[in-house]
């Protein structure tokens, strides 16, 4: 690995990343020679059809999946060489949210948000204060004592976002975070992510199969096709001039609808 | 009102004897349940591992226990093994062995089921929060697994208590056997006693198992 790659102020760098799963009778290639740089403070989108390897890719960023080859640099450090302890503290600096929210059903909203703090040894009162701050940020101050089963999907995702932000991460990974939500709720969650990116300066990686998600909040996008990156560039670039076949397929049928959505979303009141 | 022969219970120490019989039935149940819960949990957790030898062994064990009627198991242990291996087992010990074997098998199945019902993304998101493996189990997996496990294991516990009535067949003088003895002893002067005495046995079993069922129902409602 050439040293000049480390000092460019790029915060997340994937180099020649590969992932292969071995099953009893064959090998399945999930990722092949992925090279990506995610800049400080941007919202980076990764789009692809199901099975393209998006979820595996985002899991390699916090090593929920161990890459079979290649390197993951975060702030210039190769995290694939981290020991268990450094990896755990690294994970606290990378928040993650999921399609199915993954809240703890037996804990109240407040205690879901304080959970990662409690586990890392933060005092109860301090954790509570931080959680209330975050719940205010995501617009759920009044639901602190509710339980996840009493919330709508959008509200659950807001709690998950608050929880992911509890440990003050520099990065937020969103794995199909809006795929289980209706269009209006999706829009409001995306607005929230944008707000978090702008006010807290959190770098966000968004995994999605929906072009309108990319269009609404991302600065740059990578199009993933059959385990490889087919195309990468700024969202406007890729949208106006998609070079790969897969990008054209994903964008063109959406373009009219997406631009309409973008216009209407600015007028729409945010739903909480 | 027909003569139920309930007066038999008031004679001598009859009612106290019946309660004593219930005590024996409960002693067998409680010891077996404790052993089953502990061993069953350990085996259930172990069954999560991908160990072929353990898997084969557990499979054989479970199938044998499931297929055999408990009564046959009782006979096998009490009459069979004592003869063949020449050891000396009291009826009560034999009962505890059989009920523990049975309870452990069922319990391990429940634990395995509860653990594998926790979806993979729960482990994943816990790890994404920076939890250690032990913390993932302690704070995320176990609380959820226990919630699912409690109603099921309470059901198993009541079944075990009820099934202890079979141990009279290997000569253990538990509540049902005491009831029979009381009825036999009063066959001449109180020929209707069977109804009253068995009714009392029914009520006593009910009083033991019903609170447990209610508890199970409550927990299920609260956590369902």
Q: Any overview of this molecule?
A:
The complex is a heterodimer of chains A (272) and B (224). With 272 residues, chain A is of the alpha/beta class. Chain A has helices at residues 54-61, 84-92, 109-119, 124-137, 153-165, 183-200, 211-217, 235-240, 245-267; strands at residues 10-22, 27-39, 43-48, 69-74, 77-78, 94-97, 171-175, 203-208, 220-225, 228-234. Chain A starts with 9 loop residues before the first strand and ends in a 5-residue tail after the last helix. In chain A, helix 3 (109-119) crosses helix 4 (124-137) and helix 3 (109-119) packs parallel to helix 5. Chain B is mainly α and 224 residues long. Chain B has one domain: MetI-like (MetI-like fold, Orthogonal Bundle), CATH 1.10.3720.10. In chain B, helix 1 crosses helix 4 (91-116). The longest helix of chain B is centred in the first third of the chain and has 33 residues, at 14-46. At the A-B interface, helix 2, strand 6 and helix 3 of A face helix 5 and helix 6 of B.
CATH level-1 class of chain B: Mainly Alpha
Oligomer: heterodimer
| Structure class of chain B | mainly alpha
Low-confidence stretches of chain B: none
CATH C-level class of one domain in chain A: Alpha Beta
Q: How confident overall, as mean pLDDT of chain A?
A: 87
Order of helices and strands of chain A: EEEHEEHEHHHEHEHEEHH
- Please give the most extensive interface between any two protein chains, plus how many residues each contributes: A-B, 25 and 18 residues
Number of domain units of chain B: 1
| Number of β-strand runs of chain B | 0
The count of β-strands of chain A is 10
CA-CA gap between termini of chain B: 45 Å
Distance between the termini of chain A: 46 Å
What is the CATH architecture descriptor of chain B? Orthogonal Bundle
Largest sheet descriptor of chain B: none
- Named CATH topology of one domain in chain A: Rossmann fold
Q: Which strand order spans the largest sheet of chain A, edge to edge or round the barrel?
A: 6-7-8-3-9-10
CATH architecture of one domain in chain A: 3-Layer(aba) Sandwich
Radius of gyration of chain A: 19 Å
């Amino acid at each position: 690995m050439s040293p000049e790659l480390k000092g460019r102020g790029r915060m997340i760098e994937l180099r020649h990343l590969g992932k292969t799963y071995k099953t009893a009778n064959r090998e399945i290639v999930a990722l092949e020679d992925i090279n990506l740089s995610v800049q400080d403070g941007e919202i980076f989108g990764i789009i692809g059809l199901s099975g393209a390897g998006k979820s595996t890719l985002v899991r390699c960023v916090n090593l929920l999946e161990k890459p079979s080859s290649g390197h993951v640099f975060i702030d210039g450090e190769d995290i694939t060489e981290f020991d268990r302890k450094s990896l755990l503290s690294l994970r606290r600096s990378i928040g993650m949210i999921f399609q199915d929210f993954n809240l703890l059903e037996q804990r109240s909203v407040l205690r879901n948000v304080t959970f990662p703090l409690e586990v890392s040894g933060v005092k109860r009162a301090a954790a509570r204060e931080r959680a209330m701050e975050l719940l205010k940020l995501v617009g759920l101050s009044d639901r602190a004592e509710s339980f996840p089963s009493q919330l709508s999907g959008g509200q659950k995702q807001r709690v998950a976002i608050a929880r992911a932000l509890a440990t003050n991460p520099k990065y937020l990974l969103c794995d199909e975070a809006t795929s289980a939500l209706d269009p209006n709720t999706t829009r409001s969650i995306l607005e929230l992510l944008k707000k978090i990116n702008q006010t807290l300066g959190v770098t966000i990686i968004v995994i999605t199969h929906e072009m309108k998600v990319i269009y609404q909040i991302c600065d740059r996008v990578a199009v993933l096709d059959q385990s490889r990156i087919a195309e990468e560039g700024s969202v406007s670039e890729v949208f106006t001039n998609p070079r790969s076949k897969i990008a054209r397929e994903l964008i063109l049928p959406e373009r009219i609808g997406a631009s309409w959505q973008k216009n209407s979303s600015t007028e729409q009141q945010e739903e909480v | 009102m027909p003569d139920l022969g309930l007066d038999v219970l008031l004679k001598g120490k009859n009612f106290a004897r019946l309660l004593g019989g219930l005590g024996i039935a409960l002693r067998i149940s409680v010891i077996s349940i404790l052993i089953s819960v502990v061993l069953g949990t350990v085996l259930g957790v172990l069954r999560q591992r991908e160990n072929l030898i353990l898997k084969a062994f557990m499979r054989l064990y479970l199938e044998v226990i499931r297929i055999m009627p408990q009564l046959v198991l009782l006979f096998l242990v009490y009459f069979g093994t004592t003869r063949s291996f020449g050891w000396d087992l009291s009826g009560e010990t034999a009962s505890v062995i059989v009920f523990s074997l049975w309870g452990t098998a069922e319990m391990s199945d429940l634990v395995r089921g509860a653990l594998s019902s926790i979806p993979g993304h729960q482990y994943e998101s816990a790890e994404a929060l920076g939890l250690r493996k032990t913390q993932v189990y302690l704070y995320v997996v176990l609380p959820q697994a226990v919630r699912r496990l409690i109603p099921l294991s309470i059901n198993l516990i009541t079944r075990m208590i009820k099934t202890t009535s079979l141990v009279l067949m290997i000569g253990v003088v538990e509540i049902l056997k005491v009831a029979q003895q009381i009825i036999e002893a009063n066959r001449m002067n109180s020929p209707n006693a069977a109804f009253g005495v068995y009714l009392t046995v029914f009520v006593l079993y009910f009083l033991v198992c019903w609170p447990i069922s209610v508890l199970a129902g409550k927990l299920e409602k609260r956590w369902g």
